[in-house]
Amino acid sequence: MINKKHSVKTNKFGFVLGAVMLATLTNGVGSANAQGIRIIVAPPVVVVAPPVVVAPVVVVQDDYVYYPSYGMYYNRGRNQYVYLDNGAWVTASAPYGVTAEVLLASPSVHMDWHDSPEKHHDDMVKRYPKNWKSSDEHHDQKDDRKSGPPEGDKKH
User: Fold this and answer.
1) Which position has the higher pLDDT, 69 or 2?
2) Which residues, at least 6 apart from 99, have a Cβ–Cβ distance to it below 8 Å?
3) d(CA 17, CA 118)
4) Would strands 88-92 and 80-85 be described as parallel, antiparallel, or unpaired?
5) C-alpha–C-alpha distance, residues 84 and 15, integer Å
6) Tell me, what's the pLDDT at 17?
7) What are phi and psi of 66, to 5 degrees?
8) Pseudo-torsion of CA 100, 138, 133, 98, nearest 10°?
9) pTM of the predicted protein model
10) Under a CB-based contact definition with an 8 Å cutoff, are residues 110 and 148 in contact?
11) pLDDT tens across 9-26, in order?
């Protein structure tokens, strides 16, 4: 025989117990799914060096004009004056003892060598003494390629 009162109480108790157990299992399953293992791999860091820029090599050949009246040379490629001062060769941005205008108006000779004046100065002093005059009446640095050694000394 089935006791209806007991059965109803058991059913209510069983229902509540079942609901609690179901809720517990559902939450447990839900949280188990929510908990996952995540592996994060950072992207590699790539360092790229900037390209090496190599500038072309420019060689400037020395190009001298000699002013015999002052024993002074002008290097046109470097815009520098070179002269002998108390036995030492000096390189300067301006002529010494004379203005650039006076120097440029004086007789000059374009040199056919491209190294240091000190290697040629003794010969230049002999070939072009201080009182040497160019065959050209008007002469300046822009025109100095027209002048050269005296007629007997011209090289071809």
Assistant:
1) 69
2) none
3) 116
4) antiparallel
5) 120
6) 64
7) -105, 135
8) -10
9) 0.51
10) yes
11) 556 766 666 666 666 655
Structure tokens at 37: 């293992």
Counting every residue, how long is the chain?
Answer: 156
Please give the span between the terminal C-alpha atoms of the chain, in angstroms, as a whole number: 146
Give the burial string for 15-30 (b: 16+ CB within 10 Å, else e): eeeeeeeeeeeeeeee
127: exposed, middle or buried (Cβ count in 10 Å: 0-12, 13-18, 19+): middle
**What are 76-123's pLDDT values in tens digits?**
988 999 999 999 999 999 999 999 999 999 999 999 988 899 999 999
Whether residue 124 contacts residue 152, with contact meaning beta carbons closer than 8 Å, is answered with no
Separation of alpha carbons 103 and 107, rounded Å: 8
DSSP result, the chain: ---HHHHHHHHHHHHHHHHHHHHHHHHHHHHHHH-------PPPP---PPPPP-PPP--PPP-EEEETTTTEEEETTTTEEEEEETTEEEEESS-SSS-HHHHHHS--EE-S--S-GGGTHHHHHHHS-TT---S-SS--GGGTTS--S-GGG---
